[in-house]
């Protein structure tokens, strides 16, 4: 089959690799500059930041097998075993060169079109079978089947003219927002070992020292504001948000001087009510909706959702 996958996050890349291994012709479309989705890594000068997902854990055998393969390839490694003194025994994994490196590794051998924003998913015209995926530049990609892994509100918009009745819970689901500060420093930060902390200050949900993680040659700290703070300040001007985050970040920056900084807005950070099943299959069977809103908003959940989407189209 000709299958178009919308979204090159981990769910989309996992589905695409699985489907291609079964002999299907796969095209992956993503609006970003590179694959990855929430597995995002950014550089500011010599500093490197994971500014989306900071780490991942392994609970199930299928994902454990995949992570072991990433470790063998030098793509992923253990960062630590918890963020409290003594840890909790569970390994936290990261991309060896940043989280985005895992996504780029998963994209190898796939036809991934970055900078291609899907505009609509519609049924093929009269007398034709399947679907058409329309890109914002007017390009139309015919497909026998489609997998959409972008955030649910975006998927719903893409399917507006297709006449697909998604379950009400999926349509109504919303996402928590995250405002993030990326801070480049001239010396070591105030983040304690192992370089990650989940503060109880009511502002930040996670603070990561990317140098301590081993992905940045220059002191670089990622600070994620929690959903309540992010919602409250979402519509404030960029300068006002930046100044408020810098002020709140002072305890985590330590004695170092702030050299450079940027604010990132993550509109679809965490689904509020994840769908219990790993994916949703439209009644006709040739359209599957998957992603990190299914079976848990975590890296492993996205991986399992991608595998389930591929299985649904191959059954």
Unreliable spans: none
Compute the CA-based radius of gyration.
20 Å
Tally the beta strands.
18
Largest sheet: 6 strands, mixed
CATH architecture of the largest domain: 3-Layer(bba) Sandwich
Question: Superfamily at the CATH H level of the largest domain?
Answer: FAD/NAD(P)-binding domain
Tell the overall outline: globular
Number of helices: 9
Can you give the mean pLDDT? 95
Which strand order does the major sheet show?
7-2-1-11-18-17
CATH domain class name of the largest domain: Alpha Beta
What does this protein structure show overall?
This protein is α+β, with helices and mostly antiparallel strands and 315 residues long. 28% of the residues lie in helices and 30% in strands. It has nine helices and 18 strands. The chain has helices spanning 10-21, 61-72, 99-107, 152-158, 168-172, 210-213, 227-233, 238-253, 299-314, and strands spanning 2-6, 25-30, 41-44, 47-50, 76-80, 92-95, 112-114, 118-123, 131-135, 140-143, 145-148, 175-185, 196-197, 204-209, 220-225, 258-271, 280-281, 287-289. A six-stranded mixed beta sheet has the order 7-2-1-11-18-17, covered by helices on one side. Strands 13-14-15-12-16 form a five-stranded antiparallel beta sheet. A three-stranded antiparallel beta sheet has the order 8-9-10, with no helix packed on it. Helix 1 (10-21) runs parallel beside helix 9 (299-314).
